[in-house]
Amino acid sequence: MTSGAASGSGDTAAEVLALLAERGQTLAVAESLTGGLVAARLTDVPGASRVFRGSVTAYATALKAELLDVDAALLAERGAVDAEVAAQMAAGVRGRLGADWGIATTGVAGPEPQDGHPVGTVHVAVSGPSGAAKTAVLRLNGGREEIRKESVRRVLALLSGELHGNARAQDTEQNGGT
């Protein structure tokens, strides 16, 4: 059993990959504070290559604009720890890597606050085929490792919720809106 499976994120990773495979859809990941942990969790799942396109770890703020098409003015005004930045990261990686879905993490894992945000402030986002983004702000406790692991778990859970919600919406449309 991997540490991800023990914390539940391994099961969620396998679940979202299976859902995407059933739909013939793909996934890309943009990461900052998690430094590649989301991509690692996904690629721990056998068969992930059927749907996982790749990831961009844009740890430096400038790379978020250069590689993920995050608005440089937004980054200058608000910094990297922001819900709209996370949303743009998710949309940017989706577009850059040619995926149906994009997910993103940005925040402060510590040990020091960043841009006026306390340690444990994290934004996660999902961008789907419609182009709409769903974001969540997290206020996490614990040390750096715990914050990063929980961020992975939460972004995968957000994606799972969106995939399940998307499936319910499709079922409703196929059943005549009842």
Question: Can you count the beta strands?
Answer: 5
Number of individual domains? 1
CATH fold-level name: Maf protein
Can you list the strand order of the major beta sheet? 2-1-3-4-5
Kindly provide the name of the CATH class.
Alpha Beta
Low-pLDDT regions: 1-7, 170-178
- How is the main sheet built? 5 strands, mixed
Per DSSP, what share of the residues sits in E-state strands of 2 or more residues? Answer: 15-25%
Question: So, CATH architecture?
Answer: Alpha-Beta Complex
Span between termini = 42 Å
Q: CATH H-level name... which superfamily?
A: CinA-like
The arrangement of helices and strands along the chain is HHEHEHHHEEEH
**How would the global form be characterised?**
globular
User: What would you report as the Rg, rounded to the nearest angstrom?
Assistant: 16 Å
Number of helices: 7
Helix content range:
40-55%
**Average predicted confidence as pLDDT:** 91
Structural class from helices and strands? alpha/beta
